[in-house]
Design a protein that fits this description.
Layout lengths: L1 H10 L7 E5 L2 H4 L12 H8 L16 H15 L3 E5 L2 H4 L10 H16 L3 E7 L5 H5 L8 H16 L5 E6 L1 H6 L17 H28 L2 E7 L2 E4 L4 H23 L7 H13 L12 H7 L6 E4 L3 E6 L8 H5 L1 E4 L16 H14 L5 E5 L11 H19 L5 E7 L18 E3 L8 E3 L1 H12 L9
Helix pairs in contact: 4-6, 8-10, 15-16, 16-17
Bound molecules: 4-nitrophenyl beta-D-glucopyranoside.
Length: 481
């Protein structure tokens, strides 16, 4: 094994056309929450109404102020010579009411300026259409559980293709639908904080999937021929390892992966389409036992199963950490966790980060990439997020070791396992607002001084190592001290 590791690390360079990028999301960095016509989003509402639900009672009203400082961000990207920059569009900056009755010219200008400045520096834009900041007026209609949002999202996507599609060749419709859906499951975790576990989350995901498919086929039928880009969807998953090497634990880990990743991936990336069979069976069974007249998991019509199948040009994956699985009672009744029936844990010997959920388990990356390749026919795949949190120190050895060790597993997946991986994105370019953890956990390759009104950016050691990896297409050897 150590021979294989040595070979992979020192002799294998990333393929010539492999893409390296860095990622951010609008609410986490932009600030300017109510500036120049921007409407309110569910995260503005959530942080303003429930400061106590955020670890440091903070919000992202200003954040890294990238709305005003985007040129500094692009300078950082240029210094690292990344191939692309993944950022997201604040829906409510462009459509303050969520619908097309009001188009905010300033919002269009902001993203035009950002895209043009990137291209000037030879950095490709990768645009996430939706990274969690739903316009509040659409939440007043019920938010994602309301199937009408399929139409609203399609209108939003059309506006983006029309305004930016001449220059944007990489689109991500939605970031982490499973986490978006969690906003309709438990009150304190994610906006909008609707408490309807095992019901609201399934309904939200059902709309999210159909909204994604609409945006995909809209591109395919009206824009692809002229614009020639790629449309995908970012899905997130931990790797789930059996707690013990027993048949039950193997079955539990497989089931956990289906409930976590298969939930949104199976309808899009398998030949048969639809939700994973194990999900349909278990949710139907539990729903019946709980006295529901229907399964809490909604049903797709045959037309929707067809529309969802194949609705992605590439697989976009966010991956950070690994969990251990054994069968058992989890979650309240009803809930998705209870439906999955898997008790999850982490090995206390795994190195920690500043985030309780994020343990450093590089081999989980390779196992997950292999699971995806096997389950979904080895799709073209871009890792759209992978990263490490600490307290924000400039000499961030933990982050350097994290990226080096995870990237070396990516190399093994490419060369030894023949997984079709074409790109990697570090989360994140900048220290930013880490949702309900506020500013207490830092993921940036660049430090941001949030105590200063000018929000200065400073390169951390990791940004220099990442630049070196990008320049040489190789992982430098040896552990950081
Ligand atoms: C991602 N998990 O969310 C998000 O896309 C980013 O906005 C966020 O800042 C980043 O990860 C770091 O937290 C995740 O439970 C949500 O494993 C949940 C998990 C992982 C990532």
């Amino acid at each position: 094994m150590s021979v294989v590791k040595g070979v992979a690390d020192s002799f294998f360079a990333f393929p010539k056309d492999f893409l390296f990028g860095a990622s951010t999301a609008s609410y986490q960095i932009e600030g300017a929450w109510n500036v120049n016509g921007k409407g309110e989003s569910i995260w503005d509402r959530f942080t303003h109404t429930h400061p106590s639900w955020i670890k440091d009672s903070e919000n992202a009203d200003v954040a890294a102020d990238s709305y005003h400082l985007y040129k500094d961000d692009i300078q950082a990207l240029t210094d690292m010579k990344v191939d692309f920059y993944r950022f997201s569009i604040a829906w409510s900056r462009i459509l303050p009411k969520g619908d097309t009755s009001l188009i905010n010219k300033d919002g269009i200008n902001y993203y035009n300026n950002l895209i043009n400045e990137l291209l000037k520096h030879k950095i490709q834009p990768m645009v996430t259409m939706y990274h969690w900041d739903l316009p509040q007026p659409l939440q007043e209609l019920g938010g994602w559980p309301n199937p009408l949002l399929v139409d609203y999202f399609e209108d939003f996507a059309r506006l983006l293709y029309k305004n930016f599609g001449d220059r944007v060749k990489w689109w991500v419709t939605l970031n982490e639908g499973a986490e978006v859906a969690a906003g309709y499951s438990s009150p304190r975790h994610y906006a909008p904080g609707v408490e309807a576990p095992g019901v609201g989350d399934y309904l939200a995901a059902h709309t999210l999937l159909r909204a994604h498919a609409r945006a995909y086929w809209l591109y395919d039928s009206h824009f692809r021929r002229c614009q020639g880009g790629n449309v995908g969807i970012t899905l997130n998953s931990a790797w789930v390892e059996p707690l013990a090497d027993t048949e039950e634990d193997h079955t539990a880990s497989e089931r956990a992966l289906q409930f976590m990743l298969g939930w949104l991936a199976h309808p899009i990336f398998t030949e048969e389409g639809d939700y994973p069979l194990v999900m349909k069976e278990r949710v139907a069974h539990n729903s019946k036992a709980e006295g529901y007249s229907h399964s809490r998991l909604p049903t797709f019509t045959a037309d929707w199963i067809t529309a969802l199948r194949g609705s992605a040009d590439y697989f976009a994956l966010n991956h950070y950490s690994t969990l251990l699985a054994t069968p058992g009672d989890a979650g309240g009744v009803p809930s998705k966790d209870h439906d999955a029936g898997v008790v999850m844990s982490q090995d206390p010997s795994w190195p920690a980060s500043a985030s309780s959920w994020l343990k450093v388990v590089p081999w989980g990356m390779r196992k997950l990439l292999n699971w995806i390749a096997k389950e979904y026919g080895n799709p073209k795949l871009i890792i759209t997020e992978n990263g490490f949190s600490d307290q924000g120190q400039l000499d961030d050895v933990g982050r350097i070791n994290y990226h080096k060790s995870y990237l070396s597993e990516v190399l093994k997946a490419i060369y030894i396992d023949k997984c079709n991986i074409i790109g990697y994105t570090a989360w994140s370019l900048l220290d930013n607002f880490e949702w309900t953890r506020g500013y207490t956990e830092k993921f940036g390759l660049y430090h941001v001084d949030f105590s200063k009104p000018s929000r200065p950016r400073t390169a951390k050691s990791s940004s220099k190592v990442y630049a070196e990896i990008i320049r040489t297409r190789k992982i430098p050897q040896g552990d950081e001290q």
